[in-house]
Write a structure and sequence with these properties.
Elements: H1 22-32, E1 40-44, E2 47-51, H2 57-63, H3 75-85, H4 88-93, H5 97-114, H6 119-136, H7 159-168, H8 171-186, H9 190-213
Helix pairs in contact: 1-3, 1-5, 3-6, 5-6, 5-8, 7-9, 8-9
Length: about 210
């Protein structure tokens, strides 16, 4: 049997390391659109990381104990990011916020191709795409609340933790990231310039980790 076609076990050990800062997840999904083909994601110590295709991709995923079940942990942060940042007030204040989430949705479509041999992974990715799409479209359409599955992770995103995450994203930082995202969305040499985007994210990732550790 093709190993890619098997369904990995749901992770139960040290589940706290899969708590993720919501907007960072959206940004990482957006970055997928300008990453090399077949780039995969994994979660390590509360950070979404990239695993680019190459001779060491499998070794890296084995070493980090990552598998396709990591994708399911994107569920709650994607939903929370949509609820927080795709509101009418937020989009009026930051019009390019829609561009960022549209890039994230495109990143999910790319990941569907990357994980095309694993039906379960593709189902999760399609579900995440629907969550984002339902927030991007008119309120006349079905709300993402109708399709969101909270699971065991939602209670871990306490109001206190979400408030700490919110403080990470000052208006100045949001403007910087949104401007970079808009530039990369039309940049013909984005695959080289994306390094600057990822460098900015290092600080955000570290601050998000600290929110969990306090």
């Amino acid at each position: 049997m093709n190993q890619d076609a098997t369904i990995p076990d749901n992770k139960t050990n040290n589940i706290e390391q899969y708590i993720l800062e919501p907007l960072s997840v959206i940004i990482k999904l957006a970055i997928i659109t300008i990453k090399p083909p077949e780039t995969k994601l994994f979660i390590y110590d509360n950070i979404v990381c990239f695993n680019e295709k190459g001779m060491f991709q499998g070794i890296s995923r084995f070493y980090n104990k990552s598998n396709k079940s990591d994708l399911a942990f994107l569920n709650v942060p994607v939903y929370l990011a949509c609820c927080k940042y795709l509101t009418r007030d937020m989009i009026e204040k930051f019009p390019s916020m829609r561009t960022l989430f549209e890039m994230a949705r495109s990143g999910l479509e790319i990941l569907k191709t990357t994980y095309r041999h694993n039906d379960m992974a593709c189902i999760v990715l399609h579900y995440l795409t629907c969550i984002i799409s339902s927030h991007l479209v008119s309120k006349k359409h079905a709300s993402s609340d109708d399709i969101f599955y909270s699971g065991r992770m939602r209670p871990m995103y306490t109001d206190s933790l979400l408030e700490q995450y919110r403080k990470i994203w000052t208006d100045d930082r949001l403007l910087i990231f949104l401007n970079i995202a808009c530039f990369l969305s039309i940049d013909h040499d984005a695959n080289r310039n994306v390094a600057a985007f990822e460098t900015f994210m290092v600080t955000i990732d570290l601050e998000a980790q600290n929110c969990i550790r306090v």
